[in-house]
Automatic annotation (TrEMBL):
The gene is ga3ox2. This is gibberellin 3beta-dioxygenase. Its cofactor is L-ascorbate. Residues 209-311 form the Fe2OG dioxygenase domain. It holds the Pfam family DIOX_N.
Amino acid sequence: MQSSSSSASTPAAASGLVFDLGSAAGVPETHAWPGVNEYPSVESAGRDVVPVVDMGVACPDATRALARAADEWGVFLLVGHGVPREVAARAEEQVARLFVLPAPDKARAGRRPGEPTATGYGRPPLALRFSKLMWSEGYTFRAATVREEFRRVWPDGGDDYLRFCDVMEEYDREMRALGGRLLDLFFMALGLTDVQFATGETERRIRETWTATMHPILYPRCPEPERAIGLTAHTDSGFITLIMQSPVPGLQLLRRGPDRWVTVPAPPGALIVMLGDLFQVLTNGRFRSPIHRAVVSRERERISVPYFLCPPEDMTVAPLASALLPGRKAVFRAVTWPEYMEVKHKVFGTDAPALEMLQLQVDEEEQGERAATT
């Protein structure tokens, strides 16, 4: 994770709500981020083509494509996924309606200061770690409790409330089912047979107990996009993130040698699959969580709907036996979700990646072998 000189130290960073960014004539100093253009931005082309995985092709082909994308990028565009376009369209429409509600309605569901992972409306949770404000607003809610959560926005219920909850529950069902199908492909990519991942206790528990959190984000038009950031550089923390986005590119991936930001395309119907830190732990580092950020546009606003699949709080995450290559040992120690988030909050905004805090000591020979393959 990239470092930042803008660690949280001001009242603005503790506030749960945002300004009316859509009507801003310029980028105020509160939202001006230094270093936004430290690395060049490039399109998805040549050696920087963002991989595409088609779940509609034969299973062995999809598994090979997924394994290659997860190993080399940790993220890919997913097509042939079986999620009806009308389901995604309805979800995007309802999210857009949510963000255009009057400020007092959204304020009823504001995040509580000092609780960066709390549900509710306001700036994205990770934004609370910085004094500079990001050019975005978001709403975090647990998919299983959408009706309870959105009574904060629509306390009297009504048609708008029911329509929003119905659509979000429909979207949750589709995303959860897709997550299960993807998990099967990831297990096959690790070398497990159908019988092994159907009968393996850990593999079965992941599927049966993982939790789902949704975090719709609005990135308004920005009069000076070169001075602002929609979402600062970070890695996702959980297992797998499924992202539905407007047909407006804005997600960027950090690639090394030389360092550059690769803009992810936004083809209609495609979803983005992003791997999280704990999936990197689960696969013993074979599949990696990418550093990514969101930039903003002068001409168009953008909606993104990340759907996070994460372990339950009481689950201990450790490298799967199937992820250990012959002669190799576990790279990471076991950790629970709360333990990992505590580590990540401590190092956020520094040059110390949280995953390094979980790494186990290995002998020099094995370190050399690993270095030669990365």
